[in-house]
Automatic annotation (TrEMBL):
Belongs to the major facilitator superfamily. EmrB family. This is MFS transporter. It comes from Planococcus lenghuensis. It is a multi-pass membrane protein. InterPro entries: EmrB-like, MFS, MFS_dom, MFS_trans_sf.
Length: 492
């Protein structure tokens, strides 16, 4: 692998800005959904497609990102992705009917899906292994902080302005990196122009990952017994099995599962999946607790989580530097110990728990998570040979999408089941009817956090097996290069 003495910070900054805006938009509409329902006169299940559709497009395109990154230049991918994103944002801002708004969100998602894998691959190509921790710490700002501040900002805007203002604010933010990409960006990765995408693999991937994402995301709304839920999950599992089988047989797979021959990458994937499931407990359950039980407004609910997001933003670069010096194991074990203790605290919530207590402990929990996510992911990627970096990055981003959907569905199911059981017990004991709902819901939330504590303990145990990874070498010596490539640009 050829490294520059000085990485191309200018181009990385352009990519960083574009990825931040694209990922930030993923959660921007969550708070705005009720306002959109009123304007377009649609029900909750219909409006939810603005979120579900965005997620599905991501789940379909992210696995294919390894092909695009190897086939086309980073410049052409970035310009194409940001152009789609800008177009989707513009259409959404002026959408006259709901169908147009939904189509605009799909176009947005098509652009956003390629940004995270592209940025991750450029970071891996531009920095040597001994400096990747610091670089990926900056990357953590995009991955974790951007979606975390979306609901807080949108809560303020929706309270004072129209939901269309969200897109009008995002539009100039997206135009800036697009224009910089057109006029300033160079190609810093060598790509293989001989690659051709396998159409059947793309279809199977779409059915597999799309089915799993939609099925698990729908479980909370429709219940596990609904044919739509278990049918799409079954189709997803079948599609995924066929997809993996085909990838193992292809000479040039769309998504190379050979990455799991590398033990530290396989271990990092397992830890990330388990931690994502546990992490989603607070992201899902805290808004329910503070808004439904404590009666706190959506705006204040978003503000409650903002210090945690800012904490992760502050810690990501610091954690990256510590990773370069000490490795992933000590950081991750310390962070996960904090996650386990803070998650257990949330299993002891009561009607008297104060706003500041919740904010403080949530911030501490985010501090712990900031010490785990990027170090573990970077350590796993460090073991891959350079030509497998696109596949490793695509795999990580895909698994985050899928594990998030699965974790959300499972935790909501646990909460609802426990709440129903507690409600029946309270009713039988003669409790006042007006207090039963809140008490039962609180019991369900506490029990779910208790389950999440044990999930976090599983991640802590797995982390004890982590070792500092050393990069493998490609058999054919083909590598990415961090040197600018003076080749004709192949447009995506």
């Amino acid at each position: 692998m050829t490294e520059q003495k000085k990485p191309p910070y200018g181009m990385i900054a352009i990519l960083f800005t574009g990825a931040f805006v694209a990922i930030f938009t993923q959660t921007l509409l969550n708070v705005a959904l009720p306002s959109i329902m009123v304007e377009f006169e649609v029900d909750a299940s219909t409006v939810q497609w603005l979120v579900t559709g965005f997620m599905l497009v991501n789940g379909i395109l992210i696995p294919a990102s390894a092909f695009f990154i190897q086939r086309f230049t980073n410049r052409s991918i970035f310009i194409a992705a940001m152009s789609l994103f800008v177009l989707g944002t513009l259409i959404a801002a002026v959408a006259p009917v709901f169908a147009v708004l939904l189509a605009a969100r799909m176009i947005q998602a098509a652009g956003a899906a390629l940004m995270m894998p592209l940025l991750m691959n450029v970071m891996l190509a531009a920095f040597p292994v001994e400096r990747r921790g610091s670089a990926m710490g900056i990357f953590g700002l995009v991955m974790i902080v951007a979606p975390a501040i979306g609901p807080t900002l949108s809560g303020y805007i929706i309270e004072h302005y129209s939901w269309r203002t969200l897109f009008m604010i995002v539009l100039p933010m997206a135009l800036v990196p697009l224009l910089l990409g057109i006029f300033k960006m160079k190609n810093i990765m060598i790509q293989n122009r001989e690659l051709k995408i396998d159409s059947l693999s793309l279809v199977l991937s779409s059915i597999g990952f799309g089915g799993l994402l939609y099925g698990f995301s729908s479980a909370a709304d429709y219940g596990w017994s609904n044919p739509l839920v278990y049918g799409t999950i079954a189709a997803g599992v079948a599609g995924l099995v066929l997809f993996i089988t085909r990838q193992l047989k292809l000479a040039v797979p769309m998504l190379d599962f050979q990455v799991y021959k590398y033990p530290m990458f396989a271990l990092s994937s397992a830890i990330s999946i388990v931690l994502s499931i546990s992490m989603f407990s607070a992201m899902i359950l805290m808004p329910i607790y503070v808004q439904t039980i404590k009666g706190i407004s959506p705006m204040d609910s978003g503000l409650l989580m903002l210090p945690g997001a800012l904490m992760m933003g502050i810690m990501s670069p610091i954690t990256g530097r510590l990773f370069d010096k000490f490795g992933a194991r000590i950081l991750a074990m310390t962070g996960l110990a904090i996650v386990v203790l803070s998650t257990y605290f949330f299993s002891q919530l009561s009607l008297e728990t104060t706003y500041l207590q919740i904010m403080g402990m949530y911030t501490i929990r985010m501090f712990g998570i900031s010490m785990v996510m990027m170090p573990i992911m970077t350590n796993g990627l460090n073991q891959l040979s350079p030509m497998l970096n696109p596949h490793g990055a695509a795999m990580n981003n895909t698994l985050q999408q899928v594990s998030g959907a699965i974790g959300s569905a499972l935790l909501i199911t646990v909460m609802n089941t426990r709440a129903e059981s507690a409600g029946a017990d309270l009713l039988a004991s003669g409790a006042a009817p007006e207090t039963i709902m809140n008490q039962a819901l609180l019991e369900g939330i506490n029990y779910t956090f208790f389950v999440s504590t044990f999930i976090a303990i599983v991640a802590l145990v797995l982390t004890s097996f982590v070792k500092r990874a050393k990069p493998a070498v490609d058999e054919d010596n083909r590598v990415f290069t961090a040197e600018p490539v003076n080749e004709p640009v192949t447009e995506a």
